[in-house]
UniProtKB/TrEMBL annotation:
Domain OBG-type G: from-to ranges: 2-258
CDD domains, alphabetized: TGS_YchF_OLA1, YchF
Ranges in coiled-coil conformation: 129-156
Upper taxonomic lineage: Bacteria, Bacillati, Bacillota, Bacilli, Bacillales
Function: ATPase that binds to both the 70S ribosome and the 50S ribosomal subunit in a nucleotide-independent manner.
Protein name listed in UniProt: Ribosome-binding ATPase YchF
Family membership: Belongs to the TRAFAC class OBG-HflX-like GTPase superfamily. OBG GTPase family. YchF/OLA1 subfamily.
GO cellular component, one term: cytoplasm
Keywords annotated in UniProt: ATP-binding, Coiled coil, Magnesium, Metal-binding, Nucleotide-binding
Amino acid sequence: PLTTGIVGLPNVGKSTLFNAITQAGAESANYPFCTIDPNVGVVEVPDERLQVLADMVNPNRIVPTAFEFVDIAGLVKGASRGEGLGNKFLSHIREVDAIAHVVRCFEDENITHVAGQVDPISDIETINLELILADLETVEKRLERTKKNLKSGEKKFQLEYEVVERIQKALESEKPARSVELDEDERSLIKDLHLLTMKPVLYVANVSEDDVSNFDQNPYVQKVKEYANHEGAEVIVISAKVESEIAELEGEDKQLFLQELGLNQSGLDRLIQAAYKLLGLITYFTAGVQEVRAWTIKKGTKAPQAAGVIHSDFEWGFIRAEVVGYEDLVASGSMNQAKEKGLLRLEGKDYVVKDGDVMHFRFNV
Ligand code: GDP
């Protein structure tokens, strides 16, 4: 499964946030594909559509879909030179599919800031520079190797050299690899480099508990937003401390507490949804009397592979899928009415599943 790594300098609130994630999170036991590891938190993806579907079919249970956050603590300045536990942390980042970069936007004189003062932009740049330096090393090694291969005269190596060199130039001017525009072929040439700065990023601005309701007043948040805007990244503003309090509550208590804070959704829920999107994940549903359930697939997944997420038999024995779009189903009021209106489609093995599709698979066993 795809994972999002939580990174950031020490004392910015990563552990507090990660604790909120595990506290609010799902038991891995309910999601067999999830890892059982103290550094991994399983989160359920909040999705209002589940309840709407459930109201239609009255199932025995509702099962949201889930994915994982990984806590990558301990990244410090100098990591790319092996300082702290540098290389180890960088290798952990290499394994994740997206990065949630936590930055401190709260003042608290009792909590030391590693650089002596709260300065989110400098924090972001410190971490990003470590990732860039690590990538630069990877890229330089590859260039040397490709240079040797160039002698073979194969066109593939020529192209590879050119692409890697473009990335090197970007890194040298302290820009992440993801800022380099690449087409699909070029991308596949450098995929095996597993560059850290190629991974999609979102920023998590951690504000003081006093700021949760009107964080737009917080000047640090403004700066982070400007910075992120520049690279087309999203910013999620939260108070990790408040999130850890919300995470202890459930149902009505949680709603009441959120109301008191003037929020309609917890910051954690916003973070979960943003990370899900960042990973390029979408949701399809199955809706039966047993259960109404959400399933995660990567955008672009075809029907048989989407069925395979439920069970490998569904993929191998795939015949067809009955599909109705969520909006169509809701507008029709029921599965039968959707069928009468001709909104229930039969789709074959080349059908690309869309977010919100309600699916029923036909398969051979
Ligand atoms: P990490 O080193 O990034 O994992 O940071 P921690 O989560 O351990 O947080 C460092 C310190 O900052 C702890 O004492 C937290 O209680 C405190 N902290 C985290 N978030 C907030 C916040 O939103 N407001 C305040 N005042 N303190 C916070």
